[in-house]
Amino acid sequence: MEHSDLDLEARGLQITRRGLLRVSVVLRKMTHGDLDRVLEIENSAFSTPWSRSAFEAELRDDSKAHYLVACKGEDVIGYIGGWFIFDEAHITNIAVDVRYRGQGVGKQLLSGFIDYCKGRSIKRMTLEVRKSNHVAIGLYEKHGFRTLGVRRGYYVDTREDALLMWKEL
Questions:
Q1: Which residue in the list 67, 79, 100, 140 is annotated as catalytic?
Q2: What string of pLDDT tens digits covers the 169 residues of the chain?
Q3: Is there a smaller number of Cβ atoms within 10 Å at the N or the C end of the chain?
Q4: Cα angle for residues 105, 11, 78 (degrees, 5° grid)
Q5: How many angstroms separate the CA atoms of 89 and 117, rounded?
Q6: Known active-site residue 140
Q7: How far is CA 76 from CA 112, 143, 160, in A?
Q8: Total of domains in the chain
Q9: Which of 92, 81, 64 lies closest to 29, judged by CA?
């Protein structure tokens, strides 16, 4: 390993086989103390972001709602969450700080959440994604999600269709 590679790893970055930089993260359960940072990411990622009270309600309902954050050191740089209903998980949100997009954080969040679901006897997962969000669709497909339907006019801000995607665990 070259000296520069060691410097990158010391800063929490890895060199992949293709030579691209990746950020190493630690996943943990989201807490109320994470909400300021989560809301910053949420507001920059979505045209119709969730409110603080929506996230607070999700964190209170720990029987149904499950949220994880991705941390680089002490900094929250992404999050994922969803609802567990019987043996199914419905992913409600996934977002990564704009400074860390394209560096594998979303992949680590999704992989970690899939593992988290498997550990809780979830048998299938579902989500909706904007039809135009090709980056997210590609990520979901790489993790085994398949499009099984379309929700016409699902997004209230633009009336854009959502693809309904499913994955068997």
A1: 140
A2: 343 333 334 444 444 444 455 788 999 999 999 999 999 999 999 999 999 999 999 999 778 999 999 999 999 999 999 999 999 999 999 999 999 999 999 999 999 999 999 999 999 999 999 999 999 999 999 999 999 999 999 998 999 999 999 999 9
A3: N
A4: 25
A5: 7
A6: yes
A7: 15, 23, 30
A8: 1
A9: 81
